[in-house]
Specification:
- It contains one helix and four strands, in the order E-E-E-E-H.
- The chain is of the alpha+beta class and 86 residues long.
- Strand 2 and strand 3 form a beta hairpin.
- The protein is elongated, with a radius of gyration of 19 Å.
- 2% of the residues are buried.
Length: 86
């Protein structure tokens, strides 16, 4: 019997590779899903449960949204500051 859409096989694994540099992105990454902890090594391909990859993807999307919000608020602040320094 085929699995219904929307349900995941908790054993399904996917290959990921996290960015690594010599500065900010050099340490391993800790991820916990449903009470199970994983430490993901940066800079090399690793197989992880699909749920772990999804957590990392959501985290990356949230980081990008946060950076965009910070940029927008910084622009708004600078514009307001410039208006006050007439």
């Amino acid at each position: 019997m085929a699995a219904s859409k929307g349900k995941q096989n908790p054993e399904e694994r996917v290959k990921i590779q996290l960015f690594k540099d010599g500065e900010r992105y050099k340490d391993d990454v800790f991820v916990a899903v449903n009470g199970k902890a994983y430490v993901i090594k940066r800079g090399q391909p690793v197989m992880v449960p699909k749920a772990v990859a999804e957590v990392l993807e959501r985290s990356a999307r949230q980081d990008m949204a946060t950076a965009a919000l910070i940029d927008e608020e910084t622009r708004r602040w600078k514009k307001a500051e410039a208006a006050l320094n007439l």
